[in-house]
Design a protein that fits this description.
heterodimer; A: eleven-stranded mixed β-sheet; globular; B: mainly alpha; MetI-like fold; 12 helices; cell membrane (chain B)
Chain lengths: ~575, ~325
């Protein structure tokens, strides 16, 4: 089968060799390996990036962000703005116009009804939609005419590009999903495993958690694309085996998310390797979070790690600052991430408009400075090499999830802190417990029963508003909110809360960027509440024969898969 | 024998129910959250709603009883329905996997062939290698053949499959390029070239697992043969002037096979359990990979159903082993 398609592809190539552009399907089969296999192709019911990446081959949004962070139209004819009247003056609605003559892969027309339906599908209270956050503040989605959709918000929206502008919330076909709304969503296995889309490819077969095959969409809007006749997306195994299949054996063309140690990557990508590494830097930052409250186990359950008791050691900003100064971030990057990391002091390192490039004070390690700060704070060096104050040892608990790189970081940081006289007790917790939000477990990152914890977080899309809003006082996890909320540090500053409210009412992009920078500095260099360590990118492996691949931190890595082709 | 079998089967029902309850309790009280894989950018309220849509927020007893009903009533009815062509289930909820939102039974049915071909074949190959090695090793105890056999089975026992598997990939895929390192589950064997592809992609996983299986079974075979070779009836047979061939292959081998057959029968459920590590290494994506993935994703209905099916198989093959023992050895009678 594969041989015949390859031969057919080759024959087709010969026939049109003089033409400047390859015709649809002329480059044979594209082989992707995702070591986490896709479980479902409906992004609204999915549990992870792997599923969203797979569904992005088929389903498309109205518009999406390019690797540069610019919004470009996909199903929409143009990007609505205040200037062209697409966004209402009061910021309470946005009107999208679809490209004329758009077709689903089954040949039927794409209409505004499909967009309206997609909104209803996700916003159904019984559906358990995984992308509901994109519809926050949406009052209604309605069709003005067959190619025009109007989204009305309950409040003025400074960033009205949330719904339908990323691979996380693409447009579903109404006809296919009509009977799958609400509680019926999981019963539609056929639709969830084979959504009909508008993308360059359509689903040919789907074996859950194993392999997906796609074939070129005969009704794709560009008659010359895609260059490949089909895609095999194999899942399973581990990142190492995926890297091997692209760099060494050449069995696959693209390997997603190669979270491997820099040494391993280096060893596989020598001069005779069959592929190379590509990296995309989004907003993912590996950071230390300082607990502003007391996690001591002697406190009664329900008061531990709550604002009732401030942290006896970390409440002093000098200690937090010293802890940050003692760390050599460049070495951390070298050890843990190689090409997939950069040292950073920012919570918001990208997009460029929002990143404070002046915040670089932490990049240089300063052990002597750290010692001096701790002396000033009253922590005197004891005979055993650790510091004491009023007979109390400077001792911290430091937790993170179980992960080889994180344990390396813990060991390095423990050593650096030891050098300045801080005793550290390390703890690592299985990721599904640490990041699971079981309020009954004492080991979740929300409960934060430790002084310091380390993990990585980012925001979806290019707008950090919701991300910054996580650090308001009311978002601190506590028994009152069943330990939910993302303000792990229990940071609380009325001035910051006021800025969050103001950001939610500001539409001017320049002013927004300034505000985000100020808030970023408040959380990082001004208060050392969050101590950023590494700006992490994602790395993938691409075969040297693939052309047109353009890894995107703001959308699916396969966002432009229709433009990929093979070098001959 | 027949009444014994019936009695055992009836007794198996409360045992299995108890097992299902224990599995359920273990899974429920183990830490973890089906939403842990959802990206952190998804707010907790949305996660709570997703959890509710899965039914993961229901009381434990309700979840357990619902699973029992789905597993023992709806799923068998559905299988009967697909076989006869009548829709016996209607819209009743089948056991649905949380991770994929599709019926667990369908996924298991999809994975079964991969596991049975690769793991099953390795078991057959393992047994076929192990029996002659065990026989010769015992007959020529402490000879060079026995020493080599012992050495190889020690390697098979002690070197983990994730090591042998990766070694084979490095040698035969990366350097020699003979076999693919990634198993293609979409391959349909409908012609000789495809059959050849299938053989090539099965060679390495089967070899890895067969080494492990052969190591175990050949040790059993050897030990059992040695026991019997010391027996008085062997001396009697030789004294009667029988050839060595008849003595060893007819008398000793038959008697020695009794415990080995039991061991082989008890090992069969493992085939269905898949080989978690080997499947991961070669991306076979059979039942073993399915189970480990479901455990990582906290896909409770999937883990519960799979482990319970394994429990059923283990109970059944224990019974089969006992019955076989009675058939093979006339001295053993259960009634």
């Amino acid at each position: 089968m594969r041989l015949t398609t390859a031969l057919l592809g080759a024959a087709a190539m010969m026939a049109i060799a003089p033409a400047a552009f390859a015709a649809r399907g002329s480059d044979g089969e594209l082989k992707l390996i995702y070591w986490q296999a896709p479980s479902i192709l409906n992004p609204y019911l999915s549990s992870g990036t792997k599923d969203l990446e797979a569904s992005s081959i088929v389903l498309e949004p109205l518009a999406r962000y390019t690797p540069k962070g610019e919004l470009v139209p996909y199903l929409a004819a143009e990007i609505p703005t205040l200037d062209n009247g697409g966004i209402a003056k009061d910021l309470k609605s946005i009107t999208w116009k679809l490209k004329p003559g758009l077709k689903w892969s089954d040949g039927s027309a794409v209409t505004a009804d499909d967009v309206v339906f997609t909104g209803q599908y996700c916003m159904d209270p019984k559906g358990g939609c995984a992308q509901l956050q994109h519809f926050t503040g949406v009052d209604k989605v309605e069709a003005v005419d067959p190619t025009t959709v109007k989204i009305t918000f309950k409040e003025p929206m400074p960033d009205p590009y949330q719904p339908f502008t990323s691979y996380e919330n693409p447009i579903l076909q109404k006809k296919q999903f009509e009977k799958c709304i609400g509680a019926a969503a999981p019963t539609c296995t056929a639709a969830n495993f084979g959504p009909i889309g508008t993308g360059a490819f359509e689903v040919a077969s789907f074996k859950t958690n194993d392999v997906v095959t796609f074939k070129a969409n005969p009704n794709y809007r560009d008659p010359n694309k895609p260059a490949f006749s089909g895609i095999t997306m194999k899942g399973g195994g581990d990142a190492m085996a995926a890297a091997r299949a692209v760099f060494q054996t050449g069995e696959f063309d693209y390997a997603w998310n190669l979270q491997l140690s820099p040494d391993v990557i280096k060893g596989m990508t020598g001069p005779d390797a069959k592929g190379h590494v590509v990296a995309a830097f989004g907003s993912l930052v590996e950071r230390l979070e300082m607990n502003m409250t007391d996690p001591s186990p002697t406190l009664p359950e329900g008061e531990r790690s709550t604002s009732a008791h401030p942290n006896p050691i970390l409440s002093d900003i000098r200690v937090r600052e010293a802890l940050s100064m003692a760390i050599d971030r460049s070495l951390l990057v070298q050890v843990g991430y190689g090409p997939a990391g950069q040292p950073t002091c920012n919570l918001v390192p990208a997009p460029a408009a929002y990143a404070d490039t002046t915040n670089t004070g932490c990049l240089k390690q300063d052990v002597e400075g750290a010692k001096k700060l701790l002396d000033e704070a009253g922590w005197k060096m004891g005979a055993d090499g650790f510091r004491y104050k009023d007979g109390k040892k400077l001792s911290l608990t430091y937790q993170t999830s179980t992960n080889a790189v994180r344990q390396d970081f813990q060991a390095l940081i423990k050593q650096w802190w030891h050098d300045v006289g801080v005793d550290t007790e390390l703890k690592n917790i299985n990721a599904s417990v640490f990041f699971g939000s079981d309020p009954g477990s004492p080991d979740t990152f929300e409960k934060f029963y430790a002084d310091v914890e380390m993990y990585a977080n980012n925001f979806s899309g290019t707008d950090p508003q919701a991300y910054m809003a996580q650090y308001v006082c009311s978002q601190a996890p506590s028994p009152k909110n069943q330990w939910q909320g993302q303000n792990m540090n229990r940071y609380c500053d009325p001035k910051y809360d006021a800025m969050v409210t103001e950001l939610g009412q500001t539409a001017d992009p320049v002013k927004r960027a300034e505000m985000v920078k100020t808030m970023n500095d408040m959380l990082t260099k001004d208060t050392m509440t969050i101590v950023p360590l590494v700006w992490r990118g994602t790395t993938s492996g691409v075969a040297n024969s693939i052309v047109g691949e353009d890894i995107n931190p703001w959308d699916s890595e396969l966002w432009n898969i229709g433009d990929w082709s093979r070098k001959h | 024998m027949f009444t014994y079998t019936i009695r055992r089967l009836v007794l198996a029902i409360p045992v299995l129910l108890l097992i299902s309850l224990i599995i359920f309790a273990l899974l429920k009280f183990a830490p973890g959250d089906p939403m842990a894989q959802v990206p952190m950018t998804v707010p907790p309220e949305v996660k709570a709603k997703m959890r509710a849509a899965l039914g993961a927020d229901q009381p434990l007893i309700v979840q357990y009883l619902l699973w029992l009903k789905q597993f023992f009533i709806i799923e068998p009815l559905h299988i009967l329905g697909t076989m006869t062509g009548y829709d016996l289930v209607g819209n009743a909820q089948r056991v649905i996997s949380w991770q994929t939102r599709s019926p667990v039974a369908d996924i298991i049915a999809q994975r079964m062939p991969q596991t049975l071909t690769v793991v099953g074949m390795s078991y057959v190959v393992g047994v076929l290698i192990a029996l002659p090695i065990g026989i010769v090793s015992a007959y020529k105890q402490y000879s060079w053949f026995d020493q080599i056999g012992t050495f190889v089975s020690m390697i098979g026992f002690s070197v983990p499959t994730f090591f042998t598997g990766v070694m084979l990939i490095l040698i035969f895929s990366v350097y020699l390029g003979w076999f693919p390192s990634i198993y293609d589950t979409t391959l349909v064997v409908d012609s000789w070239p495809h059959f050849w592809l299938q053989v090539r992609q099965m060679v390495m996983p089967v070899a890895v697992l067969a080494l492990y299986n052969a190591a175990q079974i050949s040790r059993f075979m050897r030990a059992s043969m040695l026991d019997n070779l010391q027996q008085d009836y062997v001396r009697t047979a030789r004294a009667k002037g029988m050839t060595e061939q008849v003595v060893v292959l007819k008398h000793v081998l038959r008697n020695s096979l009794i415990p080995v057959v039991t061991v082989i029968a008890l090992g069969v459920p493992q085939i269905f359990g898949g080989a978690i590590i080997t499947e991961q290494v070669f991306k076979v994506n059979g039942l073993g990979a399915l189970l480990i993935n479901a455990i990582y994703a906290d896909d409770l209905p999937m883990v519960q159903t799979l482990t319970f099916i394994f429990a059923i198989l283990i109970v059944i093959f224990n019974l089969i082993a006992d019955v076989l023992y009675g058939i093979l050895d006339p001295r053993i009678r259960y009634d």
